[in-house]
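Predict the structure of ADP ribosyltransferase domain-containing protein.
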Amino acid sequence: MLTQMKFQDVKQCQKYIEERSKNDRLVMIVRGPFGQEIVPSIHKLRQVISIYVYCFDKVRNKQWSDKFTKIKAVVTELGELITRIKADHKIHKIVEEPLCINIFTTGGTSATGVNGQFIFSQILIDCLLRLKTTTADKKELIDHCKQQYQSNTAELSNLREFREDYSPEKALWWYSRESFFYKTLNTALRNQNIHIIFLFRGFISDIHRQLKANQADDALRVYRSQMISSDELETLRQSCDQFISINSFFSTSTYKKQALSFLNSCNVGDNLEPVLFEIDANPTLVTNKPFADVSAYSEFTDESEVLFMLGSIFHLKSVTRSSDGQVWIVRMTLCSDDQCDLKQVLLDMKDQFLSSEVNLQTLGKLLWEMGKHDLAEKYFMRFLEQLSPDDPLLGDLYHDLGRLASNAGNLDKSMKWRQKAIALKKQKQPTSKSTIPKPSSSTGKFIE
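Done. Here is the predicted structure for ADP ribosyltransferase domain-containing protein.
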């Protein structure tokens, strides 16, 4: 768990839940009387995924709790409670976490609309993978996680192990492990927390290299079960024959029955729809976003897990009901960003932002183009701190900071950066020496 909260007051507890983001996922453990009072009020909230009643009187509490589908168990023993939570969490981690996608609509050209989001997400991933990492970045990430898990002794122990023993060949092992690494990274990807993704970029790059080294040799058909909202389902239904990108690592299984069994354990209702993704992936057609069987790195080696790289692009072929009408089947094919509809626009964007050496100024310019001005300034300033006073990139960075401030309407700050750029330019100009004017051979006049 990321955070453990305790409440004695029903209203305070309900207020806390309602104020959480709809992307948050909460597990509740309630005593009998407390649960009987609060569950009817919070059961329909999407943030709440599971409720466990931990009590002395199992029979009595089963009577009122049976009508609530999110109540997973009524238990009287602590060991049984822990076992149930672990087993259910394994399922929820895959099935009920929100799926973050971008859609590329054929024929669309907007740089700020859905196509813009799709393209920028692809360029941002490429940019982050090319950025060099520093020990300061790793320290900042660890400090952030320490703050998040300051009361969790198990995760603090994991953090110590990570700090001391992490190596690039362990990246997939850390990602597959149930620890702060997976939870923090996936939360950042899901919520598009760009700075945390930035701090993780070296580890994302390590995962990319491991997936590429273990790239599947043969074409595969894999499956992914997912609970999605009715609105999300309708968006997919309206996007058939378009391209979608997944803004996270995408875990799948070669076992269809296993994927379907996960859906049977989940809550249907609350505006959620059960979906089975059926994906065909051919490694000979894809070069830049690898996928691989990562079962050997997982705690659950018998699950035949195939992991797709962050930002993988799929062609959405169809969205139909299963033959028994119980599940929606979403059929997709993995594709490359060299597909004809995507190739030119991605090439143009890469030429604009990634044609030369990638640094923090590159990232800042990309974020600026995405409309994230505060973040752009953050990385410009971070880059400024790294440059020496005589670095040839300094003048251009001053100009970018000035233009960014001007766009934000801060003319005083803009003038400050422009003056710095002018002063630097004058400083670099060679000192003029007095010279005797040379006569022109044709006119006898002096020329300079």
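Confidence is low (pLDDT under 50) at residues 433-448.
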